[in-house]
Amino acid sequence: MRVFLAVARGESLSRAGRALRLDPATVGRRIARLETDLGARLFTRSPLGYELTEEGQRLLTHAQAAETALAGARDALHSGPGGLRGSVRIGAPDGCANYLLPQVVAAICDENPGLEVQIVALPRVFNLSRREADMAIAVSAPEAGRLSVQKITDYRLHLAAARSYLDRHGPIRSMDDLRGHRMIGYIPDMIFDKELDYLSEIGVQTVGLASNSVSVQLNWVRQGTGVAVVHDFALPAAPGVVRVLPQAFSLTRAFWLIRHGDDRRLGRLNRLAEALTTGLRRELARLEAQVPAP
């Protein structure tokens, strides 16, 4: 069933093999054996990969239920009085993953020595149905899927630039002045969530320096190469970078904790989700409090 689920989610033997740490040929043999044992064809093979047949779709529901039951068994073993144990993978956009999650997760692991946490920082939406992560942090709440969604907290963003850049190019006194400055932002066709389309809100049409990574954008700002929309919680990590026109332009966004709907019955993940949410709220408030008032 593990092999079957991996192929159903990865839609190829190679992706399933990487997830299971098995040779793709071994994955293929196990799928063939499963189909023989069940007397049903579970996948349609094509040059594009493996796609579930109608019989495979019916089996998928039961395989997922079995996976949840086994996860519950592991949860019971890993939720004793000694604290949280086992391995958990958390997906997050790279801004949160770089400037908030490391210290929050480290504190949780200090309190739970048996816990192993993996942070996957990717500038895209995670697919929890394919079990890319046990839980994910997102910048907007999904509207479809069998998911559990919880708002973590709001956060603020402002225009920012290095003092060295402002010294060379002069002060920016109004939003109109931005037209004469190089703007830093996301690659337009790689913005994976409408909540990240910051620059369109101020009418910026041309992005002189663009990256799909928040960290790359902030590093450009630190080097004095232009102006960008920056998370307030990231500014303490960038000495020499100051907010620009904070009274004229400010954005508020939110982080959401997303989990697979079936995982709400798992006490271990519930406790971790609570610790993660509390820690992120506390850490974000601490970092934003360090940013000088306008």
UniProtKB/TrEMBL annotation:
Keywords in alphabetical order: DNA-binding, Transcription, Transcription regulation
Lineage: Bacteria, Pseudomonadati, Pseudomonadota, Alphaproteobacteria, Rhodobacterales
PANTHER family with a match to the protein in the record: HTH-TYPE TRANSCRIPTIONAL REGULATOR (PTHR30537), TRANSCRIPTIONAL REGULATORY PROTEIN (PTHR30537:SF3)
Top-level taxon of origin: Bacteria
TM region(s), chain numbering: none
Stored SUPFAM superfamilies: Periplasmic binding protein-like II, Winged helix' DNA-binding domain
Family: Belongs to the LysR transcriptional regulatory family.
Keyword Membrane among record annotations: no
Domain HTH lysR-type as annotated: residue spans: 1-53
GO annotation (BP), single: DNA-templated transcription
MF terms in GO: DNA-binding transcription factor activity; sequence-specific DNA binding
One Pfam family it belongs to: LysR_substrate
The protein's name: LysR family transcriptional regulator
